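Supplementary notes for students who missed Thursday's class. We covered one full example, reproduced here. Read the sequence, then the structure, then the short commentary at the end.
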Amino acid sequence: MLPFDWKFPYPSQKMPLLAANAVSTSQPLAAQAGLRMLYDGGNAVDAALATAIALTVLEPVMNGIGGDLFAIVWHEGRLHGINSSGRSPAAWTLDRFRGRTTMPVTGWDAVTVPGQVAGWRALSERFGKLPFERLFEPALGYARQGFQVTPQIARLWEQQAPALAGEPGFAQAFFRDGTTPRAGDRWRFPEQADTLADIARTGGESFYRGALAQRIVDFAQQTGGALALADLAAHEAQWVEPLSQDFRGYTVHEIPPSGQGIAALAALGMLDRLDLEGMGLDSPAMYHAMIEAMKLAFSDLHEHIADPAAMRVAPADLLAPDYLARRAALIDPARAGAPAAGTPKLGGTVYLAAADADGTMVSFIQSNFQGFGSGVVVPGTGISLHNRGIGFNLRPGHVNCVGPSKKPLHTIIPGFVTRDGQPVMAFGVMGGTMQAQGHVQMMVRLGAFGQNPQAMSDAPRFRVDDGMVRLEAHTPAAVVEQLRGLGHTVEVSEPQSLDFGSAQLIYRSDDGYIAASDSRRDGQAVGY
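Structure (token representation):
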């Protein structure tokens, strides 16, 4: 153990990277894994995938092999969206959860089909230049030979592991001998390397229809899970057309439902109708307007958004100009509101961005949802399974009520910005419901105030949850007090809180890219 005090008591300022090729993510070694692909002749998609695969090893407190994936790719003059999130097991009827008021947070009854591996393969097949197996080489090295755990990851590991120790397979994988790795300790997981090598060799077939699938299902049957071979075999990554919303001359693109990206677009559509510039950068009025727009957008999200097959409202109707104008009119500059859902016309995550000199840009996000996810880890494989099932509710008749072979409302969302039909920025903000709110805050700072990507990332953020407005510790005191005066219930978080997500942004300039990473995590932008 290194003889250091691993607290960081002083404000730290990052500088953006300017380069012709760039990768930005939340873990430095993972960013370098992507950079290796670019040096080896790969493109931004190869870099993004190598980074994402490495993150399953290097940052297990935020993602794993058994999660979901979404991405937006600019390639050869157009945008492409992919939704590789999984469905619930076919055995998940509402009766299975009878007697509960909320979905389980841990254990097998939080585990939906992991879609991430299929997404890796689909992206590689459609856009990649390098062989699929090559993308796994950095991750395999870190899993077999080990890596030093960073202070941030060690702290999160120590916080999360004790509560998950009783979940099937967790302790032997990530809480060995009742302890977690300390900052600077070398962590090895050769069984995880074997699993990744199997996925690489079979193009992911083993995970859904082969030996790994059998191990997942056998363990589910032994320990009370409902996941079946047919559930895994039925999964396919879906190519989707991103939704879009104009804001101050930019066009913001998000993956359509079942994700929450539509909430960011709706809030931006409302804010585009307000005089943000007249309110002033970082003013209480600016924060108030964004908070109120997010509250309105979230009220619609949780009422109307679900698996598209179950929705009764078309996404386009929630973004219709007349509807957004009516919603914007509900924002009172003088007081906080308590909005209800509108009535339109009926009808713990890792993020990374990568870009190359040929113009391909990738906005990519994958997640086990809350930290390690469900806590379920398939023995001998290193496959930690997400807890995405908690995205459902248990309200009979609601569009997002749990049901068989259904996608839950999803939180992870990659963002992309264009202007006049040309790519401008790949960006994202990690952190559950913080993601849509983070996208809005990034875009207001860019579109209304012209801030640079690093300043957009560094600025103090708000987060709205269940009527509570939480503010980062470095929020100006005048903003805190005036928001309280407007009727908001405000809580100021402790310094270095991770509840406000971690942003990564790559902005296209005339001569290359400007890449920003977030000091709230171990963020790093690399390039050449």
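Commentary. The longest strand covers residues 68-75. The CA atoms of residues 58 and 504 lie 17 Å apart. If anything here is unclear, bring it to office hours.
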